[in-house]
Amino acid sequence: MVTNDLTIASPLQTARARGRVRGRLILLGPAFVAAVAYVDPGNFATNSTAGARYGYLLVWVVVAANLAAMLVQTLTAKLGLATGRSLPELCREHLPRPVNRVMWVQAELVAMATDLAEVIGGAVALYLLFGIPLLAGGLIVGAAAFAVLALRARGFRAFEIAIAVLLGVIVLAFAVNLLSARPDVSAAAGGLLPRMQGTDSMMLAAGILGATVMPHVIYVHSALTPNRIPAADETERRIVAKGLRTDVLLALSAAGAVNLAMLLVAASTFHGSGIPGTDTLEGVHAGLAGSLGAVAALGFAVALLLSGLASTSVGTYAGEVIMQGFLRRRVPLVVRRLVTLVPALLVLAVGVDPTRALVLSQVVLSFGIPFALIPVVAFTRRRDLMGSLVNRPATTAVASVITALVVALNLFLLWQLVA
């Protein structure tokens, strides 16, 4: 834009003028906030259980789920950039009122199931590290999330950087454990062939899917990208969109590597070993200590704690996005935190097996995926909403196939549970 012969730099031009590296880094961040939810304690439970019970059988599920997540989060980020609104806001504007209310109710249930996994996982980690009782640990994790959320008051970059650092430590911990476990490369490659072994493996596959393609971060990611780096024109808009794709590729690759490492470590260390209890988080921790040493067990517990802390902060933020978008209402952060925290504390108080609760929470999450996926695909294919960032026909086709497969899997699981 030119005024009185003086060129006023756009926000993107200002960011890129700081240097080539800093200019690119400014476009990264939202996907890392989303990615930490892809390595939440639910992933620890489902991936470790899958590896311990079935060895390398479900490697293909982890890989396929992560590829699907990359596409989903790319569409989600693009949706926020193109429309300037979050997915819940778009649902409120374009869907009938009764449908919007149903969407809100299921989204709240998804947020509760998410917090269930995150708080329980963090509580288990505190028990493993310090012997703190589970209920007290759950309260500590719930309260500690406020410290991470408080960083948002200092701007979006502080919050994003904190989450990215926590994700980096989790990646490092599992990289060390993977090197110690030395999985069978040929057997892991064989696990890329899609196959199942009965209904139990199907349940675990749905749990892995629910723990990987997370409904609540679809809502969160769409709220992080609007107006983050305002584009002055169509050229800048495409540059920002390219940066968001890179953001998703880097963040989800890191998350996918962690998920795969979880399964490979459990498969190579526990499957067929006769070590008892390796389908529980406590058993995995004890098994790692006995098989790979104290450092591996410590890395597992620390990663689990950081995962619970980071992902529960993102989950609370998701609750804000959900209520503000679907209902256009805000509630105090303390109230929002308590609404999703209470179910997790009740589970811990009554003594439900933590790992079992985690796996079941991921199955619940998998049923919430279609409610987020279908609107994302429907909105991103509309040129009147997306403009030049509208999906290509092939992109819409692939996303539609993924959505159809997820819905079909959920219907099958529902039938199996009822039968």
Automatic annotation (TrEMBL):
Protein keywords: Cell membrane, Ion transport, Membrane, Symport, Transmembrane, Transmembrane helix, Transport
InterPro entries xref list: NRAMP_fam
Record membrane topology: Multi-pass membrane protein
Transmembrane segments: 21-39, 59-81, 102-120, 126-149, 161-181, 201-220, 248-268, 288-312, 333-352, 358-378, 398-418
Principal subcellular localisation of the protein: membrane
Cellular localisation: Cell membrane; Membrane
Pfam families recorded: Nramp (PF01566)
Family the entry assigns: Belongs to the NRAMP family.
Function: H(+)-stimulated, divalent metal cation uptake system.
Name of the molecule in the record: Divalent metal cation transporter MntH
Organism of this sequence: Micromonospora halotolerans
Lineage of the organism: Bacteria, Bacillati, Actinomycetota, Actinomycetes, Micromonosporales
